[in-house]
Design a protein that fits this description.
single chain; alpha/beta; UDP-N-acetylmuramoyl-L-alanine:D-glutamate ligase; nine-stranded mixed beta sheet; 11 helices; 36% helix; 22% strand; globular
């Protein structure tokens, strides 16, 4: 399958005590590679799926990003921007594991048609991280790609990615941009914004008027997935010690899609999504560490028979 999305330099900050305004706060700080699209591709590869990732990075560190994804088994097509640096996000992680993000999208803002040539070749599914739809400079290229996938009969899925971005764009615009997508993966805040509903069941029912499959991420409440044919699956979260929720939503998408392209049932896809997300929140960082692939594959397989699911 193919994933198109952002690639970022992550700076994860974990304060060791209450934040001191206008002075120093002792913290743990970690630098790592991230980006929602790149993370999703990494998790898919770790789950044993052949995945092609397309994105754009600054020329100075593009090779490092390419190598880190290739080590996880991703086929990488990374455009190198000679002017803009790789996008950077500072992730401030609170004591409960929740995070606030301060983002400079950098070279992601210049993803264009030239970067996307051949991305659909041999792809069984196209997945889009909607950060690229929320950027006016990249939206045209992504919408053209989605249209090409529809003409080729390739199913598409979308992760809304950003509640703040959706709020700024408006839900009508998002539905227009993603018309024809088969699957959508909102979290609860995104689902409420897009549907105008509050309760998970109502959110899913509303969104199913626009998409064939909706998988609603409920954080510690697990997930609710539904199909336009009326099927519903709600699974509870697995108990987990939440250290850092960064990347949990990306792992969720990957876990669901890994089972989906393998022909899994809605229950299997949802359980796989929750299982992949569970392991992510228990460590710092937004990607599977090197060598975790076998563990993720085994966990996802076990999830087909375990409906407890994980946290986030």
């Amino acid at each position: 399958m193919a994933v198109v999305g952002d690639v970022m330099n992550d700076v994860v900050v974990r304060p060791l005590r209450a934040i001191e305004h206008a002075t120093d706060t002792p913290s743990e700080i970690e630098f790592s590679h991230g980006g929602s699209g790149a993370n999703q591709a990494a998790f898919l590869a770790a789950l044993g799926i052949h995945v092609r990732f397309v994105g754009r990075a600054g020329v100075r560190d593009a090779s490092g990003h390419r190598q880190s994804l290739e080590r996880l088994g991703v086929e990488v097509r990374l455009g190198e921007d000679p002017d803009l640096p790789t996008g950077t996000v500072v992730v401030l992680v609170s004591a409960d594991g929740e995070r606030s993000m301060f983002t400079d999208r950098g070279a992601n803002r210049r993803l264009g048609a030239g970067d996307l040539e051949g991305v659909l070749d041999g792809a069984a599914l196209l997945h889009i991280s909607a950060y690229q739809l929320l950027e006016p400079q990249t939206r045209r290229a992504i919408r053209t790609l989605l249209a090409a996938a529809r003409r080729a009969g390739i199913p598409t899925s979308v992760d809304p990615s950003s509640h703040a971005g959706l709020r700024a764009a408006g839900r009508a615009a998002f539905f227009k941009w993603t018309a024809g997508a088969r699957l959508v993966f909102p979290n609860l805040d995104e689902g409420r914004l897009l549907s105008g509903e509050v309760e998970p069941e109502a959110i899913v029912s509303s969104l199913l008027r626009s998409y064939e499959i909706v998988a609603l991420k409920l954080g510690g409440g697990g997930a609710l997935a539904g199909t336009a044919e009326g099927e519903r699956v709600r699974l509870a979260a697995r108990t987990a010690t939440v250290v850092d929720s960064t990347g949990a939503g990306d792992a969720f998408c990957a876990g669901f899609l890994a089972r989906f392209v393998d022909g899994g049932s809605l229950a299997e896809c949802t359980a796989g999504a929750l299982q992949a997300a569970a392991g992510t929140v228990e460590r710092v960082g937004a990607r599977p560490p090197g060598g975790q692939g076998a563990q993720l594959v085994a966990s996802s397989s076990a999830a087909r028979h375990d409906r407890r699911g994980p946290a986030r």
